[in-house]
Amino acid sequence: MKKPLGVLVGIVVVVGVISTAGAWYTGTKIESVLQASIQKANQELASQLEGTSVHGTVELVSLESRFYSSTARYRVNVQDDASGPDAQPLELLIVDELEHGPLPWSRIKTFKWLPVMASSSYVLEETPSVEKWFAAAKDQSPLNGRATLNYDRSVVGHMELLPLDAKLDESSSLTFSGMIMDGQMDADGQNLKAKGYMEHLKVHADTPGKPPVLVELNGLTIASDLNKSTYGFYLGQNVLQLSDGQLTFGERRSELKIKDFEYADSASATDNLLSGRLAYNVGDITLDGKPVGSAKMVMTANSLDIPAMQSLLQLYQTKFQPQADGTLPETPLTLAEQTLMQAGVENFLSAKPQLALEDLTLKTVHGESHFNVTVSLAKPASFEQPPIEIAKQMMTALNAKLQLSKPMIADLSAVQAQLAGQSDPQAIAEAASMNGEMAGVMAVQTGLAKVDSNNILASLSYSGGQVDFNGQKMSLEDFVSVLMTRIEGMSGEPVGTTRQ
Fold first, then answer.
1. Average pLDDT, rounded, for the chain
2. So which domain of life are we looking at (predicted)?
3. Which one in 22, 73, 385, 500 has a CA-CA gap of 20 to 30 Å to 59?
4. Where residue 498 falls among pLDDT bands split at 50, 70, 90?
């Protein structure tokens, strides 16, 4: 018995010595590590919020170091310039209890024996900025979390937002089930993964003089898997899924419900060229208990020159982005800025970008419609040419197809009538059917589309200066002339005239 006991005691002593030595080392290094992390966080905030009206900073307010642990306090300030010059910044104070490594007790007791630099447990501290948030959480800290700092300075964390039940004012309220978030990030923030889940959110807003609005969201999941590019922004995938949601609005208290909503985006880069995909999907839509349909949209972009886009974006933010009061800057472009803009446009087009609405699908009870369009661009030989020649050279290819269901138009017309307060089912059905048929008649009369049974069809393709419009081949010049003539026929006025 003595030998095994001696071995066990020896192991405990060794672990104790290692832990003590590690704790001393961590305790002497923790401040420099925190300051480095905060500096990195501020750089990242500035980078990711560039071009928006929001900016924020993080600072270490205090650090109380002990042998085995430390207490750090951070201040986070967030300011939205769009709220006006008199708006006060949102101030968050976070208290972080740090256990020094390599073997923090909170990890040992949960059988996590892999050495780490530190383990932290943090909570939001009450300040005037968040006192209502605390009250809604029944005077508990509404935000808390845990994080582990590894010796390679990677971080693994878990954050919780507590349930809330609050009156926003005398007639408005908010109910929130809480939310959990898990994430991990490497030392330099190059790789980031996060996942979160919210069970329920309900907001009731009642504004004087307007009908009350009720918004309900159930089963929200968000997830990200991102890698930072050499240009400073993140690439990868983001997904948002919502089990169901409801909007109650209007004098008639109409109820619009959706189910199985999903948003997904992805982006990747090869050298200096960016590709991306954006998709929305709504599995089911109902209005006042009656089925409306479903919807899907997919957009893609390929061969986008990143430096050119960044240059143009920076110029836009400087010269064209609306100010806090909604007005546009009045300072004209300087000669140097005009040169910079032209160079950005030329570089963007030189990469031969391709933009596409790959699929727009709307499906109702009685019909289904589709639309897609793809455009390929290139740099023209010169911008000092007639507009038609620039268009020929800049747009190397275009393909578009439309299939518009007349029964779908009728279904949506019935929905519109329902929203307008009409209640006679027979009158609604007759008007809706007439609208579907009228759409087909107008398409044929204007020559912009054809009718095949219950579908209105249109197609347009362009390549090498030649256009195929609904099966009719012509030059780009002739197509522009035909299009202008038909638009004039629809409006009854020559294109370009102004009504007095």
1. 83
2. Bacteria
3. 22
4. very low
CA–chain centroid gap for 392, Å, is 35
Q: How many CB atoms lie within 10 A of CB 39?
A: 12
- Give CA separation, 261 vs 98, 184, 257, 264, in Å: 40, 26, 11, 10
Distance between first and last Cα of the chain: 106
Per-residue pLDDT tens over the stretch 65-87? 877 788 888 888 888 776 666 77
- Spatial separation of the C-alpha atoms in residues 148 and 161, rounded to whole Å: 19
Cα 281 to Cα 12, 39, 298, 405: the distances in Å are 57, 39, 9, 20
Higher pLDDT, 439 or 248: 248
Contact of 282 with 248, CB cutoff 8 Å: no
Q: What does 103-151 look like in DSSP terms, one character per residue?
A: S-HHHHTTT--S--SEEEEEEEEP-GGGHHHHHHTTTS-SEEEEEEE-T
Three-state secondary structure call for residue 335 = helix
User: C-alpha distances in angstroms, 412 versus 146, 286, 364, 384, 424?
Assistant: 50, 12, 8, 47, 16
Distance between CA atoms of residues 128 and 141, nearest Å: 14
Please answer whether residues 285 and 258 qualify as being in contact, where contact means their C-beta atoms are separated by less than 8 angstroms: yes
pLDDT at 494: 52
Within 10 angstroms of residue 348's Cβ, the number of other Cβ atoms is: 21
* 412, amino acid identity: L
Sequence-separated (6 or more) residues with CB below 8 Å from residue 312: 341, 344, 345, 348
102 cis-preceded (ω within 30 degrees of 0): yes
Whole-angstrom distance, CA of residue 100 vs CA of residue 31: 12
Please say if the pLDDT value at position 52 is more than 90. no
Give, to the nearest 10 degrees, the angle between helix 306-319 and helix 335-350.
150
* C-beta of residue 411 within 8 angstroms of C-beta of residue 432: yes
Secondary structure of residue 184 in the 3-state scheme: strand
Contact indicator for 217, 242 with CB cutoff of 8 Å: yes
pLDDT in tens, 475-487: 988 888 888 877 7
